[in-house]
Amino acid sequence: xxxxxxxxxxxxxxxxxxxxxxxxxxxxxxxxxxxxxxxxxxxxxxxxxxxxxxxxxxxxxxxxxxxxxxxxxxxxxxxxxxxxxxxxxxxxxxxxxxxxxxxxxxxxxxxxxxxxxxxxxxxxxxxxxxxxxxxxxxxxxxxxxxxxxxxxxxxxxxxxxxxxxxxxxxxxxxxx
Length: 176
Prior knowledge:
Elements: H1 3-14, H2 17-24, H3 29-39, H4 43-55, H5 60-64, H6 74-80, H7 85-93, H8 110-116, H9 120-128, E1 137-138, E2 144-145, H10 147-153, H11 163-175
Antiparallel strand pairs: 1-2
Helix pairs in contact: 2-3, 3-4, 6-7, 6-8, 7-9, 8-9, 8-10, 9-11, 10-11
């Protein structure tokens, strides 16, 4: 892990999100607003940040795909924080890349987070948008695993009741 990633991980533990986002994006108020809106599950806040971006001459898609120092997009960040499906859908509707990989220690997509979390709504939104469940998660040891195996073998408490079983069913439907 490089020094900037190590510092960002330590910030997650000690600083409130708004301070962390200002540290990540010291010269980009729009990115701070976007990630703050994602953190607080605010679809209206996401829209507001995107209107500011357009006023500054940026595209909405460019803005939702900005990356943190840990290499996370807003969509991957939202999925990692178990945000509501409406937040994920808003980011996708605005041009978020559904199959983008991110992370500094691991290579992961938003779908890896939702399947591993047993998040039925998030998984459904991502699959409808074309997320590829066959893309492998790559751990720090180089080991890879697909979304179905993540959902089937997850030891995390699911976001939704019976979430892991339902996510497995959704993933099997995609493969049939």
